[in-house]
Structure formats: C-alpha cells, structure tokens
From TrEMBL:
This is Integrase. Residues 182-216 are annotated as: Disordered. Residues 182-210 have a biased composition (Basic and acidic residues). It comes from uncultured bacterium Contigcl_1542.
Length: 216
C-alpha cells in the first residue's frame, strides 16, 4: 500500500506507561524510571543538544567523560531517577525553544543502540508544556493539560515517508555536549553513532502516563 500523504499520530497525543521521557522543572532536569530501566548498567550520562534540529540526546558515558552527570540513585539494589540541578541549562534551552522556564516541560523519547553507544533521542519540537499559575491563595498549580508547539496544532504527526527517512539519519551530526551545571557547550569531535538503528521493540510511540508533580 502507498502511504504517501499519511501522517503518523505523534506519541505525545496518546497515553501509555513505561515510555522514556525527560523533564525540565523547577531548575532541574530528570529522566524517568523507564529510561533508567532501559540502561540498567549505566550510572552516568551526557546531555547533547542540536540547536538546528531541536533534538536532545541522553548518551551513556563513563564517570570521567566530559560533562558526565549521575542520573540515578541506588539504594538497597533499587535504582531510581536523580533530579539534576541545571537552572542555566534550562534557561538556555527555554530561550532556544521559546518555552516559559517557570512551566514544566516534558519530552517523549526513543531508545537507540549504535555500536557500543546507548542513547535516548528526544524531539524538543514535540515537547509538552504544562503551564503553572498561582491561585487566589498564592498556591502554585500545574495544569494537567499540556500545550504543544504551534506547528503541531493542525497536524497529527510527521508524514510516514519522512519518518522512514528519519530512522536512517546521523544522530550526532551537529550535536554539542552540554554542561548542565554550567550551561556550556562543547562540539563533539567524534561521531560514534553514524548509521545508528533504532533498537527493535524499544519504542511504541506513546506518551508516558505520568501526572505532573504536586506543587508547593
């Protein structure tokens, strides 16, 4: 069958559990439990940003690698996500994307394997933005209904033919390693993920069914 002209329903428009997501909130960034479980032996990551394509990558790395970050905690053999403080990083990303840094931002990701590299790829153009406001008593409230980029208002998702092309793209071309704590960028000199292929069965195109955290 010819699927020309067909759009794929974006995963962000559906609810599902156990899907990788990355959140920016209250000056901190955090991967969810689904990410931690998929990279069960990884304790440190790098965060890479492509300012042209608006893609964000979480890459498994060693503790002594450039700008490595501890992304989880382990207690009694159980690994849980760690919130990483990075207010400057969040301000820079929000400036790039036109987001309000006071809001909660959540991105849905895909898991990839390429040679010895393990990564999660997040499309920042498809991020969900949960608005925060103060009520009459001054208590902060987070909306449970996300806002999406204006470019997604009249579409269901990418064209099927364009999505197939995207699976063969060069993930790290044009990326820079980001220092979350200092907000600095350093271009990558190597390209270990050329020809990366999506790991079969690791992405179903659904949104993590998570509620915004309680506000104080």
């Amino acid at each position: 069958m010819d699927f020309s002209g067909f759009e794929m329903g974006r995963g962000e428009f559906f609810a599902h559990t156990r899907e990788p997501c990355f959140t920016l909130s209250d000056g901190k960034v955090q991967a969810n439990t689904a990410c931690i479980r998929k990279m069960a032996d990884v304790d440190h990551i790098q965060i890479l940003i492509n300012q042209t394509t608006h893609k964000l990558v979480i890459r498994a790395c060693e503790e002594d690698d450039l700008f490595s970050l501890p992304w989880c905690r382990t207690k009694d053999g159980i690994r849980t996500p760690r919130a990483i403080s990075g207010p400057v990083f969040i301000m820079k990303v929000c400036a790039l994307m036109g987001w309000n840094p006071d809001n909660r931002i959540r991105m849905l990701g895909k898991f990839y394997r390429a040679n010895e590299d393990l990564i999660f790829l997040f499309d920042m153009d498809g991020a969900e933005e949960f608005e925060r406001r103060r009520d009459e008593n001054g208590k902060r409230k987070t909306s449970r209904t996300p806002h999406f980029a204006a470019s997604l208002e009249n579409v269901f998702g990418p064209l099927f033919t364009e999505h197939k092309k995207e699976l063969g793209f060069n993930i790290h071309q044009g990326f820079a390693v980001m220092s979350v704590r200092e907000g600095r960028l350093k271009p990558r000199e190597e390209n270990p993920l050329k020809g990366a292929e999506e790991h079969a069965g690791d992405h179903h195109g659904h949104r993590p069914e998570e509620e915004p955290p309680a506000d104080s």
